[in-house]
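Sequence only, no structure available. Ideas?
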Amino acid sequence: MKSIQMVDLQGQHEKIQDEIDSAIREVAADAVFIKGKQVKLFQDALSVYMGVPYVIPCGNGTDALQVSLMALELQPGDEVITAPFTFISTIEVIRLLGLKPVLCDVDPDTFNIDTDKLEKIITRNTKVIMPVHLFGQCADMEKINSLAAKHNLYVIEDAAQALGTDYIFSDGKRKKAGVLGSIGCTSFFPSKNLGAWGDGGAVFTSNNDLGEKIQAIVNHGMEKKYYYEYVGVNSRLDTIQAAILHIKLKYLDEYIGARNKAADYYDNRLGKYQEIKIPCRIAFSDHSFHQYTLKILNGRRDELKEFLKTRNIPSMIYYPLPAHLQKAYTDLGYHEGDFPVSEELCRQVLSLPVHTELEEEQMCYICDVVGEWIRG
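Reply:
I predicted one. Tokens follow.
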């Protein structure tokens, strides 16, 4: 059995190496490393895949969130609702722009923002709801959009972990995560469902005014060369990254299928144990399994992590501390106990390897070792 990796990007690359090498050579031959033709080719292909008219590539997923907020012309102190159980960039960009993060606890099963708690924290200062589609499964967007419409709010989706995931509306209609709200954001960090060979990100919208504005903001606020309509940033997707992503986009559904196959195997083997809880599957969303995250219910999560390590099995804790308890964000005024579900999840969650190159022998070994630990 080959060594188990948390993410096996090398194995993924080997299968498409000739295509990637050819794409890179083409970029080198053109020598247009910023805003080359491959950026537009990728942009157009992703627009078709997502079913959205505006795809604005940018430097990374954090920038995608930041420029989306910038486009809304919010004022200092305006409130943005999001979850404390998330990667910090979601909250980081709100603070960087002088806005006020207002946190809402998450659902204990889906790990996504708890829509039953949303409306009670909406105030006259609330301007945006920013749900995170955590680990590859969508938040309850129909309910979020309904609340947003009722209170005249924008919705910015953090879809960095859910690119390629389908949301299923109550009428059976399907749309991709990231095109369900006012604006959607994603990341092309190498380990993501669609990963570059470096940083990259994109913004999605169907709103013409927002789309045109965000396109300008990511390029220093320019609509016309050297004429600046907005205060902007320098956040562009390199041509070489766009060329790589254009190749890999053809395989995204295949990659998600491989992740689901691995998740199904884990479910079948691990679902019988009362000491752990396998990921929740919900009716209104597919799951792209950016992470396969267990809840360890017996208070021995860290012990299991160490046991796996002794057997050469990597695992990760996403996330060990919720945002409101992080040192940098204590001035938000929240305290331990304010978001009990998020705090408990930080003590329970453990993610197993899930990626496109996992082999059944590896998954069998992982499940055997988990079972051995449970049986003591």
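The two ends are 25 Å apart (CA to CA).
Hope that gets you unstuck.
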